[in-house]
Amino acid sequence: MDVRDPDSVHRLFDGLPRVDVLVNNAGGSPYRPLADAGTATAARRHARVIELNLTAPLTVSLAAYEHLARAGGAIVMIGSVSGARPSPGTAAYGAAKAGLENLARSMAVEWAPDIRVNTLVVGMVRTELSHLHYGDEGGIAAVARTVPLGRLAEPSDIGAAAVFLASDAAAYITGASLLVHGGGERPAFLDAATVNHRTGKGEAG
Prior knowledge:
Elements: H1 6-14, E1 21-24, H2 40-71, E2 74-80, H3 91-111, E3 116-122, H4 130-134, H5 137-144, H6 155-166, E4 177-180, H7 188-193, H8 195-198
Parallel strand pairs: 1-2, 2-3, 3-4
């Protein structure tokens, strides 16, 4: 199913007897600098990224609404740290993920108390496509060293967090954004600002 096709999405949910949990996980983006959008074709590619990462989760959520309301269900949006920081090369993706997080908070208010809606704000994840973003094993290891926990997330880390937000253990959590990013990224300025401290010079501040 193409989640960007409302007719196909609605046909799927119309044929289901019950839906308790919806995880809006479809998404992604190729590396595409904005300056490459000098033609109408390139601009449409950026628009398609926004459609997949923002409009499609709204389409799917609306299609599932009646089922979820009857079941007292939950929606988990798969967001990204790209939605809260600059995303050079994937700017349309970052903008869509920022919008997705805001959409989830609005849904949480409008659809309470029948449906809970939360967002997982995901950092870097090791998947079968990691090499497309981070290079070979050496590149992946170098990127992992920038994460405080020392590794990229495994898909199971994200799955466990989604299960938690969908479970009764999170029954009083809605409109929330849960960071699943291994501690984020060590700010680059820290290394520059602490060079003198490592040599015994300078003052702490």
